[in-house]
Amino acid sequence: MTESAGTGMGLRGSTITGIGRYLPRRIMTNHEIEKMVDTSDEWIVTRTGIRERRIAAPEEASSDLAYAASQEALAGAGITPAQLDLIIVGTATPDMLFPATACILQDRLGAKQAGAFDLSAACSSWVYAVAVAHGYIAAGLAKTVLVAGAETLSKFTNWKDRDTCVLFGDSAGAVVMQACEPGSGFLSFYLGADGAGGSLIAIPAGGSRIPASFESIERNQHFMQMNGREVYKFAVRCIPKAIEEAVQRAHLTIDDVDVFIPHQANIRIIDAAAGRLGQPREKFFINVERYGNTSSASVPVALYEAVEGGRVKPGDVVVLVAFGGGLTWGSCALRWTKPS
Ligand code: ACO
């Protein structure tokens, strides 16, 4: 198991100056899934808290979702795409193996001055990407970075597998990050990984280990496979630890935190984490009932809605925390600076 060492917050601070979100139009309810596999609305709500999720249109790829979210983030920051130095897309469901989804987005935005690459850390991708963007800004390598989390998990879901198909959804979130005084904006980061748990959630085929073949398709190896029970246990252990690390590295106490924005995978995981931390559930922003688990899009979409709904106000201390395949996890503390 490896964990990033130190806070490494650098000389300059970084903060979010624009935020956007995109939700595909199509809503799929639990009742619709009842007609596809042997499940029930009651089972799904009780075990996960999910009531509905968004599903991308057949012609929509992850870069399309990222593009819409990014346009809103750029408008919020009051900048043009030409001002971007760097674009990072966190995604587990890229448009294709290469070119990177970030390059497709860069072209579509017309962000001609920007470098562009994808970051792959499953559901933790966006939090990892924000940490990388902070590093670029703190080191003086970039002034303005667009960080999107975009997923079309529905296209990698086996809709005949009730263990997984009830859990996931599609969406995108994006932020513009720019320099600020240290002590404002992002206050700490904590990233971790445990590759030994890699097989617990995976899309086994389509890469160099199991290249695409008729056989791999017959075996459903291009779809997501998951050991839900083990991932659940990992998540319940991981979230409190990741939150505590982010808080400690920001030289704060847990009671200083106004709002927690956790990865929206399962309401029971969030409840268990709140219980372990001895924090009231009301401090945790939750929207899993409407979107399910949207992987790397989940935290930025939740942050967007928390800001839009007035749950996160300027000056608030917010902790973002994600976990996912890899296994990976990441957290950060920030003082919200953007007026809502
Ligand atoms: N409908 C009805 N029954 C079901 C369904 C379903 N959709 N899915 C499973 N079951 C059954 C199982 O077959 C099992 O039956 P059995 O007892 O006869 O064997 C029973 O329900 C209980 O199964 P469990 O796995 O014990 O159910 P659990 O309470 O653990 O809930 C769940 C399952 C919701 C998947 C939970 O384990 C979970 O949320 N895990 C974490 C998943 C997660 O967060 N994944 C995302 C990781 S992030 C990323 O990188 C994408």
Features:
340 residues; alpha+beta; Peroxisomal Thiolase, Chain A, domain 1; 2 domains; 24% strand; globular; disordered N terminus; binds acetyl coenzyme *A
Descriptive overview:
- With 340 residues, the protein is α+β, with helices and mostly antiparallel strands.
- It folds into two domains: 2-183, Peroxisomal Thiolase, Chain A, domain 1, CATH 3.40.47; 186-335, Thiolase/Chalcone synthase (Peroxisomal Thiolase, Chain A, domain 1, 3-Layer(aba) Sandwich).
- It contains eleven helices and 14 strands.
- The chain has helices at 30-34, 41-48, 62-77, 101-109, 125-138, 162-165, 214-218, 228-249, 267-277, 288-291, 298-308; strands at residues 2-3, 13-22, 26-29, 52-55, 86-90, 115-119, 144-152, 170-180, 185-193, 201-202, 225-226, 259-262, 317-324, 328-335.
- The strands form four sheets. A five-stranded mixed beta sheet has the order 1-9-14-13-12, sandwiched between helices.
- α3 (62-77) crosses α4 (101-109) and α8 packs across α9.
- It is globular, with a radius of gyration of 19 Å.
- It starts with a strand and ends in a 5-residue tail after the last strand.
- Bound molecules: acetyl coenzyme *A (ACO).
- The site of acetyl coenzyme *A has 22 residues, from α2, α6 and α8.
- Acetyl coenzyme *A (ACO) binds next to α2, α6 and α8.
Summarize this structure briefly.
With 340 residues, the protein is an alpha+beta fold. It has 11 helices and 14 strands. The strands form 4 sheets. A 5-stranded mixed β-sheet has the order 1-9-14-13-12, with helices on both faces. Strands 2-8-7-5-6 form a 5-stranded mixed β-sheet, sandwiched between helices.
